[in-house]
């Protein structure tokens, strides 16, 4: 097993205050006059990007796990917990839940209908789950489709589209928010799954 290295390009941006270049030495290169602003240490700008990419990969994988839990809640509600091979459940999971016909947003909406129908969560927890699932989906889309870069003033950023163009600063505060959101969401979904287990067996007796 070895680490693969694929062609991934980094976007670096430099903020220049025009007031600071008025006295910059002017040189001519290939007939073009330029202001020499000194050297730029690119290493400092790029050293955090591998960490950002690793964190982004974890967000995508963790979102897949959250989606799997949504699928488990739905399949358990209809067919009960996985105790043995059940052809109908396997067909439902493979041909519908895990197909392109039913995305994350649709599964989220159906699970929320179950929560409301059977009062599986209290009001506060229900609101937290709804908000967290929306954030998780936005983050997944941002790191799957957005552009990671480094700004000389603001550090690592991700630019993405979610209703409108957005820019998110990737600092420790942001990563802490993500960690808490995923941990809390995972815990709530596990609680829902346990309740759906009981619900299934109660309706069968």
Produce the secondary structure layout.
Layout: E1 11-13, E2 26-29, E3 32-35, H1 42-46, H2 49-79, H3 87-97, H4 104-118, H5 123-145, E4 147-151, E5 155-161, E6 165-169, H6 172-204
Parallel strand pairs: 1-4
Antiparallel strand pairs: 2-3, 4-5, 5-6
Structural commentary:
- The model has no long low-confidence stretch (mean pLDDT 84).
- Strands 1-4-5-6 form a four-stranded mixed β-sheet.
- The chain is an alpha+beta fold and 205 residues long.
- A hairpin with a 3-residue loop joins strand 5 and strand 6.
- The chain has one domain.
- Helix 2 crosses helix 4 and helix 2 crosses helix 5.
Percent range of helical residues: 55-70%
Count of alpha and pi helical runs:
6
Q: What separation lies between the terminal Cα atoms?
A: 50 Å
Q: What does the overall shape look like?
A: elongated
Q: Give the total of beta strands.
A: 6
Question: What's the mean pLDDT score?
Answer: 84
The low-pLDDT segments are none
Radius of gyration from CA coordinates: 24 Å
Order of helices and strands: EEEHHHHHEEEH
Q: For the largest beta sheet, what order do the strands appear in spatially?
A: 1-4-5-6
Number of domains: 1
Structural class, judged by helices and strands?
Answer: alpha+beta
Report the sheet with the most strands, covering strand number, pairing sense and barrel closure. 4 strands, mixed
Taken as a percent bin, the fraction of beta residues is 5-15%
């Amino acid at each position: 097993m070895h680490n693969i290295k694929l062609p991934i390009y980094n976007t670096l941006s430099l903020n220049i205050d025009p007031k600071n270049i008025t006295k910059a030495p002017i040189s001519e290169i290939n007939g073009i006059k330029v202001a020499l602003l000194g050297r730029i240490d690119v290493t400092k700008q790029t050293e955090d990007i591998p960490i950002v990419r690793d964190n982004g990969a974890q967000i995508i994988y963790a979102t897949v796990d959250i989606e799997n839990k949504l699928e488990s809640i739905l399949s358990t509600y209809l067919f009960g917990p996985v105790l043995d091979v059940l052809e109908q459940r396997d067909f439902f999971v493979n041909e519908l839940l895990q197909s392109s016909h039913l995305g994350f947003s649709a599964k989220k909406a159906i699970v929320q209908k179950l929560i409301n129908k059977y009062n599986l969560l209290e009001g506060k927890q229900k609101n937290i789950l709804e908000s967290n699932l929306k954030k998780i989906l936005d983050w997944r889309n941002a790191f799957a489709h957005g552009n990671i870069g480094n700004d000389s003033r603001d550090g690592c950023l991700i630019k993405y589209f979610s209703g409108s163009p957005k820019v998110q600063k990737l600092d420790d505060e942001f990563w802490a928010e993500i960690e808490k959101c995923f941990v809390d969401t995972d815990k709530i979904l596990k609680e829902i799954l346990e309740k759906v287990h009981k619900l299934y067996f109660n309706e069968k007796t």
